Each structure stands twice: as structure tokens, then as C-alpha cells.
Amino acid sequence: MTIPDKKATDRSSLLARLDGVIGLDLTVTATRHHTPSLLEISLHGDDLIGLEVGAGQDIMVEVPVGNAQFVRRRYSIVDFSPTTGTMSLLIALKGTGSGEAWALALQAGDVLDAVGPRGKQPVSTQATTHLFIADHSAVAATSQMIRSIEFGHVHVVASFPTSQDVVSFAAREPSVKVSVTALSPVDHGDVQPFLDCLSAFEDDLFRSEGLQCYLNAEFSMVNTTKALLLERGVSPAAIATKAYWRRNKSNAPHGEPIKD
């Protein structure tokens, strides 16, 4: 029996070790700046037709890093249609990284080698109150997760590098109430504005039996805000986390932040 190489990021190796994913050949149909620091890539592919994609999931895209070398970078899926075989990616621009340079150079007609869908942070169907804490890198996933909520109250605390980058969040169901605190301008990876905001929230929110929290942001920010929520009385079972990147460190070749 051949054991899959856990470090290899080529398509065959990923398909051999990852459950529930398929290879995707995706053609760029358009690119545009959704905001100054948020790049939208529109894609089409026959592999997308009939595919099931959950709210907040992403794809692993092959990105060149020079000298015929490649890494995988993970980008959240928005505006997905299994009928037309189309989707878009929203890529947060932080001013550095090979993935960003690659994304900015994409043109209509370019073909992407991707694997997906990926991501296992489901939205709770039992919660009556949802608290989303997200930095700019998680705006796309957060927006899709909120759109999937069918009842209750949603609180969002999200940071943006400039006021021009602030985006709106809305539920698909009109009965869902969405309250948003937009923190701007906030430097990428700056956790203090989140701590100040959360510290000002009433205790009743954190002690609600129907509360579910979703922390999607920079590595250290996720850990710091999780610690604050635990101090405020939130149950560990009510906190879901996903680190998207790590300040001053490139993500690993498979697209995840490097762990300690």
C-alpha cells in the first residue's frame, strides 16, 4: 500500500490524501478590484457543474514561486453556481507574497490548477446568536457563512485596512438580524482593535446558551481573541477557529499558516 506524501502539493498527491475533494481546471473570465485591497477573480469550469460547496469553503490553487516551483494557496469561494459552473474568489491584498503577485497578474483566459472544495468550519444550525470575528483575509468566507444562516441574530466584528475596503454583510433570510462593527483603518494582523471592541460588549452576549463564535483571522489574533472569549465565559465548544495567515511568516506550501 502506497502512503501519500503529506508534504507534496501536486494535484495527484493532494487527491490521494484528501477526502471529498476533486481536481479543478478553472478558466479566468474576469478580474477586478472589489475594493482597493480586495481582488475579485471570476472563474468558469466544467468541473464545477453539479459540485456541492459549503458556506465558507475554499479551493487550493497552484501558485508559481519561481524556478519552476509551485505552492498552494487557499482562497475562499463566493458567488458559486453549480448550474453554470462559475465561481469567484476574493483575495485580500496585503502588499507582500508570491500569491498576491500571481493574482494581480492574472488575465482572462488563464487556467488555474485547483483542488477543492476545502474547509471544515460549518455554521451551527442550532445557534440562535452568531458572533463572527474576522480580519480582512476572512471577509469572503465570513460573508458566505452569514448568508447561509436561516434564523437568529448575527454580530460581526471585522477589520479593514482602509475605509474604502469596508464591505457590507447581509443574511439571505430577511428575518436574520445582522449587526456589524467595522474596524477601520486597521493594520493587517493588529489585534488590539478587536480586543477593545470585544471588551465593550455586554456579558449577556457571551453567556448566551445559543451562542456560536467563529474566529477567522491571522494566527496570533485567533489565539488572543479566543483567550478573551474564554475569559468572558464563552464555552470552548462554542468557539470555532481558523487561522488564515501568520504575521511576518509565509504560509506553508500546502497553504496553511506555519504552526509553532
Describe this entry's structure for a reader.
The protein has 260 residues and is α/β, with parallel strands linked by helices. The protein has two domains: 11-117, Translation factors (Elongation Factor Tu (Ef-tu), domain 3, Beta Barrel); 129-245, Nucleotide-binding domain of ferredoxin-NADP reductase (FNR) module (Rossmann fold, 3-Layer(aba) Sandwich), CATH 3.40.50.80. Helices cover 19% and strands 36% of the residues. It has six helices and eleven strands. The chain has helices spanning 11-17, 98-105, 139-147, 192-199, 203-206, 219-231; strands at residues 22-35, 38-44, 58-66, 69-81, 86-92, 111-118, 129-134, 153-159, 177-183, 211-218, 239-245. It has a six-stranded antiparallel β-barrel. Strands 9-8-7-10-11 form a five-stranded parallel beta sheet, sandwiched between helices. Helix 4 (192-199) packs parallel to helix 6. The protein is globular and about 55 Å long. The model has no long low-confidence stretch (mean pLDDT 93).
